């Protein structure tokens, strides 16, 4: 069932025309079987609108209009040049990274909106809602619907794009040291409440390229604000964008969950019980969720006493403070065994045989 209010809360925009929002979730497979409109043209619109929003976000971060007199030989009076930190090639690479298919698909995974897709029987039978290209299409269709509903208001389109893509994670050079609290909160809500976190976005400020946001009041006035209400308690986050405010709100809320017994062990909460057959994937999932540093595997090929190939794999996870080493006739099995022991050590149940 399409929960329009939940979707609006998630993307931080309330539609005047709710039909446009619903259309963004209708696949062609459904309209072919049942008639009506689908989201294909909205995808096209959203693709172009998203490009402009992303370019704007990049220029706000890395561009500024100055009064540099460097080109005074042209005898220009009071020149105001637009200067940027990077050149055109670098900006092209950044934009491609931010709007590529996998990035938009991952954003849909983080938001959990693909579960609301309206699909035909064939798509349903094939679980197409989990396809990378389908999730990318949905992302663009939502942006397209917002563009039309807002009468092409660039501020609105940019705000929604920032709500749906974690730009701060991409631009933050220290991202590997930061937990993805937005993802952790969403997973907890979906596992324990069977719904998405009910974030509410409050306030905002006018945008000016190169001009920083100003917060003259202690209560966060002049900044973007994100609020989550849980069991009558209000958790507030502030930032220079809705996405940044949501990050802070999620961090505050997740820490409260931990401190109040709602989360016993973040690792078990994230992956469930360690499984030796899935240990490599489980470790990687913990890394993707920023709960641990990146697992480092070191392999060495050797031979046993019978002359058969034997693989040695050492797995190091920084949080363990030690590495785990195993031998097997298969490289993958040796890696899996070492990853499993690392998992057990992370939750404090590994038993030394020494």
Can you characterise this structure?
The chain is of the alpha+beta class and 354 residues long. It is 47% helix and 14% strand. The protein is built from 15 helices and 8 strands. The longest helix is centred in the first third of the chain and has 23 residues, at 40-62. 33% of the residues are buried. The model is unreliable at 173-178 and 205-222 (pLDDT under 50).
Outline of this structure?
The chain is an alpha+beta fold and 354 residues long. It has helices spanning 4-11, 18-23, 28-34, 40-62, 88-99, 101-111, 121-125, 132-149, 154-164, 167-171, 181-192, 242-259, 266-271, 279-288, 331-346; strands at 63-66, 81-84, 200-202, 224-230, 233-239, 296-303, 309-317, 322-328.
The residue ranges in which pLDDT falls below 50 over 5 or more consecutive positions are 173-178, 205-222
| Main sheet overview | 3 strands, antiparallel
Helical stretch count?
A: 15
Query: What's the arrangement of strands in the largest beta sheet?
Result: 3-4-5
| Beta-strand fraction estimate | 5-15%
Order of helices and strands: HHHHEEHHHHHHHEEEHHHEEEH
- Between the first and last Cα atoms, what is the distance in angstroms? 56 Å
Which class of secondary structure composition applies to the elements?
Answer: alpha+beta
CA gyration radius, whole angstroms: 24 Å
Mean pLDDT: 82
State the helical fraction: 40-55%
Name the overall outline. globular
How many strands appear in the DSSP assignment? 8
